[in-house]
Amino acid sequence: MKLILLGPPGAGKGTQAQFLVEKYSLPQISTGDLLRKAVAEGTELGKIAKEYMDAGKLGPDDLILSLIKERIDKPDCASGYILDGYPRNLAQAEAMEKLAKVDVVINLNVPMEELVNRLTSRRTCSKCNAVYNLTARPPKVQGKCDTCGGDLYQRDDDNVETVSKRLDTYNSQTAPLIGYFTDNGLIKNIDATQGMENTHKFIVEILEAL
């Protein structure tokens, strides 16, 4: 099973991907994770990626595609995988289609006002990177991670101004993918405002029906 999780920042793609990893034992592929891993390992692609990251720029589409291809060629992807946050634009979607055919695209719908609230309420563990939300999923102990006890902090890009810019970028660059995948008969839209568990249940129902 090969699937893409689509949706704006704050829609819950990462959380749902983790649920699906546990349920179906499929690898989660995040371009951010791939970039950081390649840089840390000092691979040829990692050296190129580092130049862009050091300059505060996103890697070009061909670099990201190369990282994706390298990852999905590994044995643990033979039975499928979950693409989290990729593709981000039409050019990436068209390139990905030539590289591998996906079975379904799950689009998580959340109103913009709620997304701003979610993202500005988000807190991240400084040790294990677990993510909490002060309104929807608060930690048991204020300021502490439930899992490892690490201190929680607000990321620099989780303020209202930066969040608004990220959502604007999503609307201009990534949202057109909804129409693209709809035309290809791959899209399944989900109302992701009814809690993590209900969203997960809706996704599983779609996947089990494939």
Keywords:
15% strand, 210 residues, three-stranded antiparallel beta sheet, globular, 9 helices, five-stranded parallel beta sheet, Rossmann fold, alpha/beta
How does this model look, in words?
It is a single chain. The protein is α/β, with parallel strands linked by helices. The chain contains nine helices and eight strands. The strands form two sheets. Strands 2-3-1-4-8 form a five-stranded parallel sheet, with helices on both faces. Strands 6-5-7 form a three-stranded antiparallel sheet. α1 (13-24) packs across α9 (196-208), α2 crosses α4 (61-72) and α4 (61-72) runs parallel beside α5. It starts with a strand and ends with a helix.
| Helical content band | 40-55%
Radius of gyration: 17 Å
Strand content: 15-25%
Query: Which residue ranges are poorly predicted, with pLDDT under 50 across at least 5 consecutive positions?
Result: none
Question: Globular, elongated, flat, extended or rod-shaped: what is the shape?
Answer: globular
Q: Output the CATH topology.
A: Rossmann fold
Compact summary:
By secondary structure, the protein is α/β, with parallel strands linked by helices.
